[in-house]
Amino acid sequence: MEPYASMSKEELLEERKKVKAVYKEYQNSELHLDMSRGKPSTAQLDLSMGMMDVLSSDADLRCEDGTDCRNYGVLDGIHEAKVLLGDMIECNPDNIIIYGNSSLNVMYDTISRSMTHGVMGSTPWCKLDKVKFLCPVPGYDRHFAITEHFGIEMINIPMHSTGPDMDMVEQLVSSDASIKGIWCTPKYSNPTGITYSDETVRRFARLKPAAPDFRIYWDNAYGVHHLYDMDQDNLIEILAECKRAGNPDMVYKFASTSKISFPGSGVACIATSLNNLEDIKKQLKVQTIGHDKVNELRHVRFFQDIHGIYEHMMKHADIMRPKFELILNRLDEEITGLEIGKWYTPKGGYFICFEALEGCAKKIVSRCKKAGVQMTPAGAPFPYGKDPHDSVIRIAPSYPSMEDLRMAVEVFIVCVKLVSIDKLLEEME
Ligand code: PMP
């Protein structure tokens, strides 16, 4: 396969004619396909239906210490849920607060509390002239939406195959006290799929922030979301590493069972140092009497222990793996040789991140839409929705059926080809 960039104008025009004809065919097929949403498929949700049976009307809803989970109480979560989620995120149960159904909600609360009340006695951010956050890009749009909502200035940090550009992170964090945090999705990252290298995590733990209230927002949303049983990414546990490096209070770690059990009806948590936990609880006890202990118990009784979660995730993997492989194989067969796009091959998570030629992402997404395939809007994985190179497109393979996905990826490939040819032809003008 010859790279498009080395073709003559005539050859490109010829190729365009062929690709356009295929595109027209798709356009006439009235497709309604969706690769935009990072949601589990129905088959994945079905895996957790047993959870509906573990708490029947005659079940004993007391937890291990005798607490009746049907009643008020237990601000920070029942112990057995802390053990289960602690094992899942490799943290001591004593360092955990179990929350409600959403980790994003916990992240929002964490920023909100820092704005109004500060972090461990420091000046509330709302009283400061400027508050900034570092945002590795591409990243998770909802992280960026939270910081944007609070008027926090966001600074893009390029992502490499090892994680964020740590030279830049170290330099900025140590020199600017208005930088209060960094958003991280360290494992099977949304959307690049990469996992931070050992060196990256070690450098994170050894940061020397100018701001004493600087925190790493470590969103371990995809910690156990492997695609393979034997070929998995490994991530150094950040709390322990920060403690070893003499920075025990520098990290908030977030996680939930959203894409393990039911999104929106899972269990979320934060793990952090005892000092941070104490600070958080001062607010939490005003905010709520306690979260949904019945749901915590339901999760514990269904999964039993970390092995139960692991086995369950392998069932998810059996559904997700063929979808990822289908897309990755087709991209490889159709795009690699043409040199009109790059992507990383993830070993887990929910996304494939396609990097098109500069200036092409919006046009590709729009072409896809016109042919009946919905993609995540171009620019979404960047602060303020602005991709400086207009090149990143997030592909979410989880929700559609294999049959739909087979068609959707073909449409996507044709759109990538068409838009790339147009760009190259334009450059020849
Ligand atoms: N963090 C990341 C990186 C995510 O991709 C998602 C879900 N798309 C969430 C958090 C949301 O998690 P939750 O359902 O626990 O709010």
UniProtKB/TrEMBL annotation:
Gene Ontology terms, MF aspect: DNA binding; L-aspartate:2-oxoglutarate aminotransferase activity
For this protein, the record's Gene3D superfamilies field holds: Aspartate Aminotransferase, domain 1, Type I PLP-dependent aspartate aminotransferase-like (Major domain)
Q: Does the keyword Transferase apply?
A: yes
Keywords, in A-Z order? Aminotransferase, DNA-binding, Transferase
Q: Which domain of life is it from?
A: Bacteria
PANTHER family linked to this entry: AMINOTRANSFERASE, PUTATIVE-RELATED, ASPARTATE AMINOTRANSFERASE
Name the chain's protein: DNA-binding transcriptional regulator, MocR family, contains an aminotransferase domain
Supply the source organism for this entry: Eubacterium oxidoreducens
